[in-house]
Design brief:
Strands 1-2 form a two-stranded antiparallel ribbon. The protein has a domain of 34 residues. A hairpin with a 6-residue loop joins strand 1 and strand 2. The protein has one helix and two strands. The chain is largely without helices or strands. The chain is 9% helix and 11% strand. The longest helix has 5 residues.
Length: 57
């Protein structure tokens, strides 16, 4: 049996990679964090990168 080569995977021109996601800086720890789907509707209000940072503000 011949093995299929995985070969290069091409991204369509309209697709965005992870590098195109918006980034914010956490108000507590100062680390940069990226947009997540669960923050889609409240992205303007998000200030902290995690629950831990939010609770220890």
């Amino acid at each position: 049996m011949a093995r299929r080569s995985s070969g290069p995977k091409f991204i369509t021109p309209g697709a965005r990679g992870k590098g195109a996601l918006p980034v914010k800086t956490c108000a507590r720890c100062g680390r940069p964090f990226e947009w997540r789907k669960k923050w889609e509707k409240v992205w303007e209000e998000v200030r902290f990168c995690s629950e831990k940072c939010r609770k220890t503000r």
